[in-house]
User: Fold this.
Amino acid sequence: MSEQDEARVVQAVEKRLFIDGKWVDAAEGRTFDVTDPATGKTLCAVADASPQDGRAALDAAVAAQPEFAAMPPRARADILTRSFQLLHERIDDLALLMTLEMGKPLAEARGEIIYAAEFFRHFAEEAVRIDGGYQTAPAGGSRFLITRQPVGPCLLITPWNFPMAMGTRKLGPAIAAGCTSVIKPAPQTPLSMLALMDILAEAGLPPGVVNCITVTDAGPVMEPLIRSGLARKLSFTGSTQVGRLLLEQCAEKILRTSLELGGNAPFIVFDDADLDEAVEGAIAAKMRNMGEACTAANRIYVQSSVIDEFGRRLAERMAALPVGRGAEPGVTVGPLIDKAALNKVETLVADAVDRGAIVLTGGQAPGGDGYFYPPTVLKGVPREATMCDQEIFGPVAPLTPFETEEEVIAAANDTEYGLVSYVFTNDLRRAVRVAEALESGMVGLNQGVVSNPAAPFGGIKQSGLGREGGSVGIDEFLEIKYIGIKV
Ligand code: NAP
Assistant:
C-alpha cells in the first residue's frame, strides 16, 4: 500500500455524524483529531458530538423504530447480506483504514473485516428464524401464544481495539431483531464505524435505523440518553470500570443491558500437552492485536516440569515476530494504541521484574516515534505482580509455574474477571474436569482463539452480562411477549 492509498482511504471516509440517514456537522461545530499510533501523527479530524447531537441521533432512532420493527424479516436479512458482501468487496481499503487508525498489522485488519462481516451473514440467517410458541394452558380453557418482539431503540458503545467487529457484533443482531440504534465508537478509532455507515446505507438500511455519533467526552453525551427512557437497551463493550458505571445509569430506567467487559485470561499448560501446539496457542492468545484484546492470555501457568522448555520455545517465537508500522508488509506486531497504553505496559513489566520475574525476551520499549513495545516473555512472575490482577493489554507473556491441577484451578479462578480461559492437555478426563471447574464464560481447549460469530461470546463474574454471537446473540435484542387467549 502506498502513501497515496493511505491518503485516499482516509480522505474517502465521511467525518461527520450520521443521523437519520444524513451526514451532518456537530451542532457546536467542534471536531477532534484521529491519530496514527504508528507515527503519532494526525490522520484527520472528525465531528465531536454534543449532547444535543446525541439527542437528535436517539430521536431519529426512536422515530424509525415502529416502521423498522414492521419490516419483514427477510428484508432485514437481505440488508445484512448485502452489507456482508460490501464489506468483502471493500476489504482492502477498510483494512488499510483500520490499520491506520488502530495500528494492527494489515493481515490482522483484513482478518477483522472478515470476522466483522461474518456477524452480518450469521445474523442475516438468524433474522428469518425468530420463533415463538403455542401451548395449551395446563388447566385448559386458554392458550398461550409466545412471541418475540424487538426490544426497541438501542444505545451501542464500542471500544477501540476491534473498531469494526465490536460494532457489527452489536449491529448485526440489532438489525436482525428489528431494533434501531445509536452507535458510539471509541474516539481513537471512529473511522471504521463511519465507513460502515455508508455501507449500511448503500445496502438499503432505511434512514434513522442506525445512527452514528463520534465524541471525545462520552459521559455528558451518553448519560442523558441512557437516563432519557427513550432507549430501551444498552449494549456496551469496554472496560469493567466503565461497564459498572453504565450499569448504574441503566438502573434508573431499567434498561436491558448487555455488557462485554474486561478479561484476565488464564492460559494453562499441563506437562502432557503437545508443547508445539501450546506455544502456537500462546502466540495466538497473546499476540492477536498486539495483546490488546479482552481475550488475551494474561497469566500463563505452565507445569513446572515443562516451564523451561515452554519458555525457551515461546521466547524464540516471540523474539522472531517482526515489529513495525502495521501498514508495512511482513509486520506482525504493530504499535500500542497510545502513549498511556505504552506507559501502562512499561510500568507493569517493571513491577513484575522488581518482584523477581526474569525477562526471557523483550522488556524494553525501543523509543522513537509511535507507541511500540517488543514481544516480551517473563518467567517466574509471582502472584503479587500487578499484572496478575490487571489487563496487560500489550505483547507481554508472563509465565508462572505450578505443580498440581487443584493449585492451578484455584490460581486461574483467583480473579474478579471470568471471560475466557485456555487449557492445553492431551488428557481427556483432565480437560473436561478443568474446563468445567474454570470460572469463565468461554474455554479454549488446545486452541488459543475462541472468537467465532456462530458461537456465544461472553463472560461471567465481572467480565459481563449476556452473550454476543451464536444462536443466542439475537435474544439480547428481543423481548418475549406472552399472549393469553381465551378459547
Ligand atoms: P473503555 O475505556 O471502557 O471505553 C469503551 C467505550 O466506552 C469507548 O467508546 C469509550 O469512549 C466509552 N466510554 C467511556 N466512558 C464512558 C461513559 N462515561 N459513558 C459512555 N461511554 C463511555 O474501554 P477501551 O479502553 O476503549 O477498551 C478496552 C477495554 O474493552 C478492555 O477492558 C477490554 O477488555 C474491553 N473489551 C472487551 C471485549 C469483550 O467482548 N468482553 C471486547 C473488546 C474489548 P471514550 O474513550 O471517549 O471514553
Q: What stands out?
A: Residues 157-162, 166, 184, 186-187, 216, 218-219, 222, 237-239, 242, 245-246, 260-263, 294, 391, 419, 459, 464 surround NAP (CB under 6 Å).
